[in-house]
Amino acid sequence: MNLRRLVERIWTVRGSLPLDPALAPEAALARLDPLFQEYGTTVTRDQRGLAYDKKDPGAQDPLATFDSGSLAVVEGGEGAVLTWRLVSKSLLACFFAPLLFLAFAQTAVLIGDHLAASADAKADKKDEKKEPVLYQNPLDKALGAPAPEKPKDDEKKKDAKKERKLSPTPGYVFAGIFAVLYIVGRVLEPMLVRRRFRRLLEQG
After folding, report:
1. Do 62 and 113 reside in the same domain of the chain?
2. Of 110, 137, 164, 191, which is most buried, counting CB atoms within 10 Å of its CB?
């Protein structure tokens, strides 16, 4: 069960707030009602809780990050407590996106290595078939100038590597961007939700 909770934390946010003892459960939920009057939001409620679901929420929706969720008023040791469980498909997507882009980057590396190896093999076959004729001017030879040197294998390999057109860099960049988005969203969004709930509950 703990493992399941840990996995659910990737896209699920849980929290709670103590309620004013003078505030009835129905009144507490009524104060939060403006959050669930946004376009595309459907709500099912009873006296001590509600469940909601959003379809294509607008950018101005304060709960746009969390597609669905449930809130309930429960009795705690020191009085009534508002608890919530919110689910975000956006957080889930941002969590898996870095893995996807890292896979793309690794694929680019493998393909690039394969292309470079193929280019090296072709270059070796050409060398085996025909050795280059190194021409030296007779005058230079008579003056004792050194003979032209054959191209070094290292230079050939460098030329082959230049033919590698697939780069893993974009994959690494996008993976980093989505990783940052997930971390920021996972930390910031629950804080914002808690602040909104508290502000509405404290309004008279």
Report:
1. no
2. 164
